[in-house]
Amino acid sequence: MDPTMIIVIVAMIAIFYFFMIRPEKKKKKALQDMRDSLSVGDNITTIGGILGKVVSVDSEKITFETSEDRVRVQVAKWAISTVGKQVTEEQPR
Questions:
Q1: Which of 47, 49, 52, 53 is nearest to 31 (CA)?
Q2: In sequence order, what DSSP letters do the residues of the chain get, joined into one string?
Q3: Cβ-count burial of 77 within 10 angstroms (0-12 exposed, 13-18 middle, 19+ buried)?
Q4: pLDDT tens over the chain, length 93 residues
């Protein structure tokens, strides 16, 4: 095998790592850190689009209220998409 061919293969692997694998690992780590830092009172959105306010946090589950009627929903932590203030604007018709 030609030495330049080996260099090209190594360079392609390095480019693939830095542009594909590494950013994805950073994104997953940031999402896991966000889920681990959830606390009572946080406003959340699930991956299904349900909005609510956290009322209890377990190691694997989150319980949140979805409305002023105090409807409580329990989901797995991995189902939380975002934390923070949600904007619920109606779409113009």
A1: 47
A2: --HHHHHHHHHHHHHHIIIIIHHHHHHHHHHHHHHHT--TT-EEEETT--EEEEEEE-SSEEEEE-STT--EEEEEGGGEEEES----PPPP-
A3: middle
A4: 788 999 999 999 999 999 999 999 999 999 999 999 999 999 999 999 999 999 999 989 999 999 888 899 999 999 999 998 765 555 555
Q: Which two tokens stand for residue 18?
A: 């830095």
Name the region of 55 (left: φ>0; alpha: ψ -120 to 50; beta: rest).
alpha
